[in-house]
Structures are given as C-alpha cells and as structure tokens.
Amino acid sequence: MKRLQEKIQTFGEHLKNVHREAGKLGFVGIMKLLWKDLFADRTLTQWLYLLALSSVPFVLEFTNQEASHDWLGLFASWTGIVCVILVAEGRASNYLFGAVNSAIYLVLALNKNFYGEVLTTLYFFVMQPIGLYVWLSNRINDQGDAEESHFEAKKLTLMEWIKYLVLTALIWIGMGYAYKSIHSARPFRDSITDATNGVGQLLMTGLYREQWIFWIATNLFSIYLWWGKSIHIQGMYWVYTLNSLVGWYQWSKAVKKEVA
Questions:
Q1: Is 154 helix (H, G, I), strand (E, B) or coil?
Q2: What residue intervals traverse the membrane (predicted)?
Q3: Predicted local distance difference test score (pLDDT) of residue 51
Q4: pLDDT over threshold 90, residue 196
Q5: Can you tell me the distance from the alpha carbon of 36 to that of 38, in angstroms, rounded to the nearest whole number?
Q6: At what angle do helices 115-137 and 2-39 cross, to 10 degrees?
Q7: Count of Cβ atoms closer than 10 Å to residue 4 Cβ
Q8: Left if phi > 0, otherwise alpha if psi is -120 to 50, otherwise beta: which for 26?
Q9: How far from chain centre, in Å, is Cα 24?
Q10: Domain spans of the chain?
C-alpha cells in the first residue's frame, strides 16, 4: 500500500513538472518544440528512408487499377508509416501521427467488421496521450530538459520477459473467449493482435526495445488478416515489418549506449 502511495505521489509530481514546463513554453514554444522533434537532427540517410517508405502508399494508390481512389486507406497507411518511423527514431511526435492513424484505422476496421482490430485501435487511441506523457516525463523529470531529443531505451530482464509473455497469453485467451461469446466466426484468431498490440504498446510506452519483437509478430499476422481486403493496409504492414527490423537495430544501439 505504501509503495502504491509513493507511485501516485511521484506521478503527481512528474505531472506537475510536465504541466509547468508546458506553461513556460507556451503555445508558440510547444509548436517550435514539435517542429524540432519532427525535423531536427535527422541525417540524410534518415530523410531518404522516411521519404522512401512514406511514399509507398502513394505508389500503391496511383498504380492501382481501381476505378476510384481509396483516400481514407491512403491517409491511414501514410500516417501509420510516418508514426512507426518516428518511433524507431525515438521522436515523441510519433504520438501525433499515432492518434490520427488510430482514428482513421478505427473507421476502416469497423467497416470490415474486424472486432479485434476495433478494440485494439481504441486501445491505441487512448494510449497516445498516455505514451506522450511518459516520454515527455522521461525528458523533463529524468533528463531535466523538455527539448532533449535523446531517449533512454531499456531492455527486459528475464523476469520481465516472463511477465509480459504471460500477459500476452492472458489477453489472447481472454479476448478470444470474449469474441466467442458474441459469436465471432474466428474468435481466437481475432484476439491475436489484441495480445501482441497490447503488450507492444505497453513496452513502447515504457521505452523497452523488445516492443519491436511484438510489433513484428503483429505486422506479419495483420498482413495475413488484410490479405485481399485492402492493398493500402497490406502495404502499410509490409512497411511496418521492415521498419520494425530497423527499429530493433536502432533501439538495441541505444540500449548499448545506456549500458556503456
């Protein structure tokens, strides 16, 4: 009980620090900080990587032979790709693109009656402001500088691995039975991404590099799920998979720097 009270007290203090820093910056200062987070300290290779991967949705759309354009799917794919690239670079601005992407993807999943994707996307949408707070809190309370773009990547211990794998299994089974109760045709298939996405988002919020393992599992299964349904969403998940490999590499380097 005492430990819980200490955590609540610490959370309150950190939240006040974030709020105070935001007040100091003001609206203009926050916009400048967002601009810096999006564009500063990116190498030529990173710029080329961003432009190449984020152009995939446009290539798919304008080389497709469909009679009409799928603008909603195009924008969902583009915002999602930009979001995961920003995550791999450790930029807090990923949460802005994540919120927009979650809102659009929710509409697409509802239209396809993908129950698991709907709940997962709602979870993602709620986690965007929470994740942004945690990342900003890390910069302000742990690093002492809201404008610091460096992020402190961590890695799971053996016991933490066991905890999160158990949590993954519990979410998969629990949501599978939940979908079965509402007569879903593929309850335990639909619940797979609930588990991998749910745990992946928790690890991402906590700045753990192992998030990328869960993202890779999610992406590969989602490619299968959307096969033949939407070329944009398929393309988005193929790009996600590539970026997850890059993200694992970059965050592993960041972990080694922290250890050193």
A1: strand
A2: 71-88, 121-140, 161-179, 212-228
A3: 93
A4: yes
A5: 5
A6: 90
A7: 8
A8: left
A9: 28
A10: 1-142, 152-259
pLDDT, mean over the chain? 82
Q: Rounded to whole angstroms, what are the CA distances from 54 to 57, 58, 124, 127?
A: 7, 8, 21, 23
Least-confidence region, from 15-19, 29-33, 143-147: 143-147
Closest CA to 51 of 74, 77, 85, 75: 85
Q: Which residue has the tokens 């007040």?
A: 23
Please give the backbone phi and psi of residue 208, each rounded to the nearest 5 degrees, phi first. -95, 135
- Residues 210 and 205: their CA atoms lie apart, in Å, by 11
**Alpha helix (H) ranges present in the chain?**
2-39, 44-54, 56-63, 71-88, 94-112, 115-137, 158-181, 187-190, 192-205, 211-225, 231-259
pLDDT per residue as tens digits for the range 130-148:
888 877 777 676 555 555 5
